[in-house]
């Protein structure tokens, strides 16, 4: 394999695909980037088995072939190289010689055929989504995705594509976020798919521009083509819980608060909470509501009054302050509405005004307060 390419072009494409390379892997070759030259084009590929990314760019003085080069060393040397042309030669055993400026560098890679191939997929259900809408769906729900590998179904966002509606749902068992848009039209078949977090985070980097993104969904994979880049991910093939059954319908105790003021109070009180549990208590009353915390380990405490609209019975509820802050930061309106039933039941958190043709629902479970 042989190629000649401008440093800035090569570096930008390598930086893209390197985001997929795993930091640790039982398959050492996954810590490499595949360089594959064909017909004066260079395709760079990285994979962690679950996600595969290809990025293609034109090259000069090329000779077809492929080689897998260790990600860290090739990124470092190209990054530190002088501006201008970079020459790369590789033999069939995986030995790579890189020339840049006055430097000649040898790297031991692996033959390209050892690198995992892209998924072979028979047919796709193609679904198109406006970039701005897809970005909103991901950003609003991804905060509630679980990191617990014992609950694989919760380690992604559930997308439900219907003929006149799109839903995105995520939960980690402590909180749940559901965003429903009713101004969406799907020309493809209805589809429910759980998409992993890592893929969604990668996708977010491409959704700043106007236009639409085509999600190609198969039985086991989702593919997205973005200009010169193609990303595949395996679908999480698990049963997502019946989220509608856990969203309460009869929470009749209503709290309305100024969002900025409530968040500011939470941030101050949380400084004094236990660093592991982030436990705080929210006391609600018609006249003197407050947020407080006590940390016996550090012998610190905090107690701060909050101004809220509340007309129910006195109630004290425990929450994880980190979870509550993260949910409140997702609210777009100046005021936030909390709907409660009791100190041991789920709290619904909503913007005080929903966007047109949108239902944005968040749920937070309370925690048991220490005596």
Task: Describe the 3D structure.
By secondary structure, the protein is α+β, with helices and mostly antiparallel strands. It is 16% helix and 43% strand. It has 3 domains: 113 residues, Roll (DNA Polymerase III, Chain A, domain 2), CATH 3.10.150; 120 residues, DNA Polymerase III, Chain A, domain 2, CATH 3.10.150; 118 residues, DNA Polymerase III, Chain A, domain 2 (Roll). The chain is elongated. The protein starts with a strand and ends in a 7-residue tail after the last strand. The mean pLDDT is 95. A 9-stranded antiparallel β-sheet has the order 10-6-2-3-4-18-17-16-11. The chain has a 9-stranded antiparallel β-sheet with strand order 15-12-13-14-27-26-25-19-23. Strands 5-1-7-8-9 form a 5-stranded antiparallel β-sheet. Helix 1 packs antiparallel against helix 2 and helix 5 packs antiparallel against helix 6. A hairpin with a 6-residue loop joins strand 26 and strand 27. It contains 6 helices and 27 strands.
Produce the secondary structure layout.
Layout: E1 2-6, H1 7-18, E2 32-38, E3 41-47, E4 51-58, E5 60-63, E6 65-70, H2 71-80, E7 85-90, E8 95-100, E9 103-108, E10 110-111, E11 125-130, H3 131-141, E12 156-162, E13 165-171, E14 175-181, E15 191-196, H4 197-204, E16 212-217, E17 221-226, E18 229-234, E19 253-258, H5 259-270, E20 279-284, E21 290-295, E22 300-305, E23 308-310, E24 315-320, H6 321-328, E25 335-340, E26 347-351, E27 358-364
Antiparallel strand pairs: 1-5, 1-7, 2-3, 2-6, 3-4, 4-18, 6-10, 7-8, 8-9, 11-16, 12-13, 12-15, 13-14, 14-27, 16-17, 17-18, 19-23, 19-25, 20-21, 20-24, 21-22, 25-26, 26-27
Helix pairs in contact: 1-2, 5-6
């Amino acid at each position: 394999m042989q190629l000649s390419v401008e440093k800035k072009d090569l570096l930008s494409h390598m930086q893209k695909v390197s985001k997929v390379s795993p930091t640790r892997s039982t398959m050492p070759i996954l810590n490499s980037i595949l360089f594959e030259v064909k017909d004066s084009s260079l395709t760079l590929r990285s994979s962690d088995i679950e996600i595969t990314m290809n990025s293609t760019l034109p090259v000069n003085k090329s000779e077809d072939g492929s080689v897998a080069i260790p990600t860290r060393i090739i990124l470092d040397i190209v990054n530190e190289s002088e501006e201008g042309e970079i020459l790369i030669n590789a033999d069939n055993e995986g030995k790579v010689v890189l020339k840049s400026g006055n430097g000649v560098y040898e790297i031991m890679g692996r033959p390209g055929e050892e690198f995992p191939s892209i998924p072979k997929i028979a047919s796709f259900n193609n679904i198109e989504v406006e970039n701005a809408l897809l970005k909103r769906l991901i950003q609003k729900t991804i905060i509630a995705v679980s990191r617990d590998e014992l609950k694989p179904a919760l380690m992604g966002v559930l997308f439900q594509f219907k003929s006149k509606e799109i839903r995105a749902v995520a939960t980690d068992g402590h909180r749940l976020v559901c965003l429903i848009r009713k101004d969406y039209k799907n020309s493809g078949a209805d589809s429910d798919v759980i998409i992993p977090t890592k893929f969604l985070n990668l996708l977010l980097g491409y959704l700043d521009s106007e236009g639409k993104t085509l999600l190609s969904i198969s039985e086991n994979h989702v593919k997205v083509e973005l200009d010169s880049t193609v990303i595949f991910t395996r679908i999480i093939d698990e049963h997502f819980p019946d989220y509608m059954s856990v969203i309460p319908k009869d929470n009749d105790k209503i709290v309305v608060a100024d969002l900025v003021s409530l968040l500011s109070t939470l941030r101050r009180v949380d400084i004094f909470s236990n660093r592991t549990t982030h436990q705080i208590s929210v006391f609600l009353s018609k006249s003197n509501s407050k947020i407080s915390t006590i940390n016996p380990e550090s012998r610190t405490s905090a107690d701060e009054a909050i101004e809220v609209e509340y007309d129910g019975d006195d109630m004290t509820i425990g929450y994880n302050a980190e979870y509550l802050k993260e949910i409140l930061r997702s609210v777009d309106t100046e005021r936030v509405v909390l709907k409660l039933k009791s100190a041991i039941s789920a709290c619904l958190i909503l913007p005080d005004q929903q966007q047109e043709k949108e239902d944005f629902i968040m749920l937070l479970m309370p925690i048991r307060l220490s005596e």
